[in-house]
């Protein structure tokens, strides 16, 4: 709550500084760390006893940093203790194993150019956070339960609805952040979404024709739009409590799209990747880019070779995955047995037809011989 209030209060401080300097807010040269260290000390310094307010500000920032360090460390240790490889490791050993490397790496920020490194890393880590947030939202709202959607409504409507939600937005971003044509971008976005939904509707109606007793227009559209994430919501509600339905809508149709928009905006910003803050390419920009590339590398490794992260899997996840694998194997074997049985039936029918033909031919020949 403190961070949320402070975030909104910074904009109030910017407005106050702009009024004091009689300039527009857009003309204030504040970004990154300057938003805190360039605004709050000036604004608080105008209050009675301003120097004491400034001291209290820096004490609060220090406590906020300590609090964040506790939160990050506890989150990492909790995840590690839930994995197979570290589940029996004492907590204090994991604590030392996390703190010592982090402390050693942070010594870089204590050098004369440490603030520059911190500023660059802080900027490029935003790409990683947006990417991770998008992958988490996309995984929960779109990827989770997709095989069941394929089975229920088919591949075509599932893919077309996904494309309707993301492709027009990416094209619109090209107009918004490249050509700065806001209205054209909105027209492309809305028009592309409507066109994609119409194509999806055609595919869904084809599915309804194939299964007329199973679906209505409303039920098949709900299955296409929110079926998979609604089932995910039903699965996690007994664990964490009631989840309002608005969560389903936001996770499916709002949060991933907003994260894509923010990611493209960050890439297209004038001081974006490779030129941030006017810092030299080597070593500042290069170090920041490598931090982002390393995160992409970890993601691609997990995508292409997921077995490499198997030691870090949760025990219950391994049980679920083994159960799913067994179920898939059973379905495959069942399908093969059905296929073999169909083949046997076809051979029997073919043999019976051939036998019938032989009987008929024999009767004809017998009749002809009797006639003669």
From TrEMBL:
This protein's GO CC annotations: plasma membrane
InterPro entries in alphabetical order: Na/ntran_symport, SNS_sf
Top-level division of the source organism's lineage: Eukaryota
Subcellular compartments: Membrane
Biased composition (Basic and acidic residues): 346-355
Transmembrane spans: 57-80, 92-117, 123-146, 158-177, 183-204, 284-305
Membrane topology: Multi-pass membrane protein
Pfam families registered for this protein in UniProt: SNF
Keyword Transferase assigned: no
PROSITE patterns: NA_NEUROTRAN_SYMP_3
Protein name per its UniProtKB record: Uncharacterized protein
Organism: Pseudo-nitzschia australis
